[in-house]
Amino acid sequence: MWASTLLWPFRIIAAQDAPAPYLQVPSQRQLEWQEQELYAFLHFGPNTFTGEEWGRSQSLPDICNPTDLDTDQWAKILAEAGMKGMILTAKHHDGMCLWNTSTTAYKIGNGSWAKQREQSSLDADIVRMAAGSAKKYGIKFGVYLSPWDIHRDPAMPKPGLEGTMYDEPQIFGDSSPGDYNVLYVQQLTELVTMTLADGTHIDIFEVWLDGASGSDTVQTFDWTGFRDAIRQHQPGAVMWGHQGPDARWVGNEDGASRPTNWHTLSRTQDDPHYAGEALERGVRDGRYWTPAESDARIRDGWFYHAGEPSKSGATLMEMYLKTVGRSVNLLLDVPPDARGLIPDTDVANLRDFTRLRNATLGRNLVTPEHSTFSSNVRAGNNNKYGPCKIIDGRQDTYWTMDDGEMTGWVEVDLGNVYCVDGFIVQEHIALGQRVGGYGIDATVDAGTYRAVVNNGTSIGHKRIDLLDKAVKTSRIRLRITQANAVPLIQSLQVLGSRNCTTK
After folding, report:
1. Distance CA 392, CA 370 (A)
2. CA 388/CA 391 separation, integer angstroms
3. pLDDT tens by residue, 276-325
4. Which of 42, 50, 170 is nearest to 106 (CA)?
5. By three-state DSSP, how is residue 398 classified?
6. Where are the beta strands (DSSP E) in 71-154?
7. What's the pLDDT score for residue 12?
8. pLDDT tens track for 152-187
9. 3-state secondary structure of 234
C-alpha cells in the first residue's frame, strides 16, 4: 500500500508534463523565419539594363547606370506592403557583383555610375545601401549569391571583355585551373561579414543558394564549405537551397503549392533531388525539418523588362492564399527598373494586394474573452493546456489533450450570430508537425453543427480556409480527425462580419 500511494501522485505529475517533441522540430532560426511569411526578392543588376535574364552578354560595368537609384524607396514600399524583409541579388548568374568586392574586377563599383557617386562622396555599394535601407524601415535583409558564374565559366563566350581588365581567369568547372569554390567562399564571407557605413554589423535573415545553371560545365560545389561560412558569421540566417538545409524550394515558380504540405523532407541538399511534386508536398515525418518557400514574380521575368505586365492585387492575393495559406513562405520578386526604383504600376498593385489582404484576413471575430470548450484537456490542466489557449494571441501556448488522444475537437462560442466566411488555424510547430486531417463546423438552424470545411489535411505553421459563401453562425468547432501524435493547436481565428446581413 505504501508503494502504491507513492506511485499515484507521481503519475499525476507525469500526466501534466508538456508533450514531448514529435520527431523533427524546427531550429529557432527556422521558427523565426516561418513567422516572416511574406517578403520580397529584388533582382537588380546588369540584366536590368540589357533586357536579359541570365546575363550571357557579359556587358561592361558601365551598362549599370540607374538614373535615380533609391534603396530607401525599395524598403519603404515593401514595408508599407506588409513585407517582412527583402533579399537582393548581390551577384546573379552574370557574375557582376553589386558590392565593393575584392574578389573580382567585374563589379558595378568599376563602372562610371559608381565612380561619379564616389566623386560626390556618395555610397556606391548597392548591397550595403539596401541593407541600410532595410534597417531604416524595420524589415529584414537577405542576399542571393549565385553559385553558377557565367563570368568565370569557360563554356560561355565573352567577346566583349577581351583585352579589358574584366578578361579574368576562367576558373569555373572541375577541369578548369584554379578553384572556383575558394572564390565563392571569399565572396560569401564578404557578404556575411559586411557592415554598414557606420560600422554596424549587418544581420542577414536568409541566404539564397540557387542551384540553377545554363552551362554544360561540370562544377562540384563545396556546399559544406558554403554552409560553414554562413553558420560561422550569420548563425541566425536561414539557408535556402533546393532541399535545404534550412528551407526548400516549393517545386515551382508559380506562387502556388499543393493543399497538403509537410515541413519535413528525408533528403538534404547533398542527396539526389526530389521531383517537383515531392518538394511541393514535402515528406510526412521526414528526417529533416525543411519547410518550403515559394519564389514567385510580380512580373513575367525576374528582372525588370519594359512592357511586361504587373500582376494585379487580386492575383497576388490568390498567390498568397496558395502559399502562406498553405504553410509556405512567399518570396515575391519585385524588381527595380532602370531608374533604380520600383515601378509605379508595381507599387499600385502591391498597395491593392495589401488592401485586399487586410480586408480579407484582418477580420478576426474572436477575442480572449470568448468562451471555449473542448473534448479533452491534457491532465485537466485548463490553465496550461485548455481550449482558451487557441484564442489568447500568444505563440507559446496551445490547446492539447492527453497522450494517446489523436482526435478531438475544440469549440469557440462567438456570443452572437455573425457572418463567418473564413478561418486561420495554426499548429504549435515548435514541437513538430502532427495533424494530418481536420474539419471545421459551424452551428446553423437552431444550433445544429454543419461542416463548412471538409477533408482538410495538413495544418502546420498556418492554414487559411476561405468559404465560397458566408454562413450565419454563433459557434465554431475545429475537429482534428487524424494526427500522428497528440495534436497541439496554437491558434484559431474566425473571419467574418459582426454586422451580419446574409439571408
Report:
1. 10
2. 6
3. 889 999 999 999 999 999 999 999 999 999 999 999 999 999 999 999 99
4. 170
5. coil
6. 85-91, 140-145
7. 41
8. 999 999 999 999 999 999 999 999 999 999 999 999
9. coil
- Average pLDDT of the chain is 95
| All domains of the chain in start order, with CATH | 28-361 (3.20.20.80), 371-497 (2.60.120.260)
Q: How many helices (H) and strands (E) does the chain have?
A: 12, 17
Cell of 155: 563554356
Q: Which three cell numbers stand for residue 248?
A: 526548400
> What is the distance between the alpha carbons of residues 219 and 214, in angstroms, rounded to a whole number?
12
Greatest Cα-to-Cα distance within the chain, rounded to the nearest angstrom: 95
The answer to whether the beta carbons of residues 82 and 316 sit under 8 Å apart is: no
Quick check: 389 and 399 in contact, CB under 8 A?
Answer: yes
Which residues fall within 8 angstroms of residue 243, CB to CB, at 6 or more apart?
Answer: 249, 265, 267, 268, 269, 271, 273, 274, 279, 290
pLDDT of residue 264: 98
Q: What are phi and psi of 439, to 5 degrees?
A: -145, 160
Residue written as grid cell 502556388: 256
Phi then psi dihedrals of residue 418, to 5 deg: -130, 165
Report the relative pairing of strands 204-208 and 238-240 from DSSP bridges. Answer: parallel
Written as nine digits, the cell of 77 is 514600399
Among 188, 148, 154, 156, residue whose Cα is nearest residue 171 = 154
How many residues belong to the chain?
503
Q: Return the axis-axis angle of helices 71-80 and 126-136, rounded to nearest 10°.
A: 40
**Distance between CA atoms of residues 60 and 37, nearest Å:** 37
Q: Under 8 Å CB-to-CB from 386, ≥6 apart: which residues?
A: 372, 374, 377, 399
Q: Which residues contact 3 (CB under 8 A, 6 or more apart)?
A: none
Report which of 434, 442, 485 is spatially closest to residue 460, judged by C-alpha positions: 434
Is residue 105 helix, strand or coil? coil
Query: What is the value of pTM for the model shown?
Result: 0.95
Residue 247 bridge partners (DSSP): 240
Say which residues have a Cβ less than 8 Å from residue 16's Cβ, sequence separation at least 6: 378, 379, 381, 384
Contact (CB, 8 A) for 101 and 190: yes
pLDDT(333) > 90: yes
**CA quadruple 111, 113, 116, 122: dihedral positive or negative?**
negative
DSSP helix/strand/coil, 431: helix
Alpha helices in 51-192 (DSSP H): 71-80, 112-119, 126-136, 180-192
Give residue 445's pLDDT: 79
Average pLDDT over residues 480-489: 98
The candidate with the shortest Cα–Cα distance to 69, out of 107, 126, 119, 115, is 126
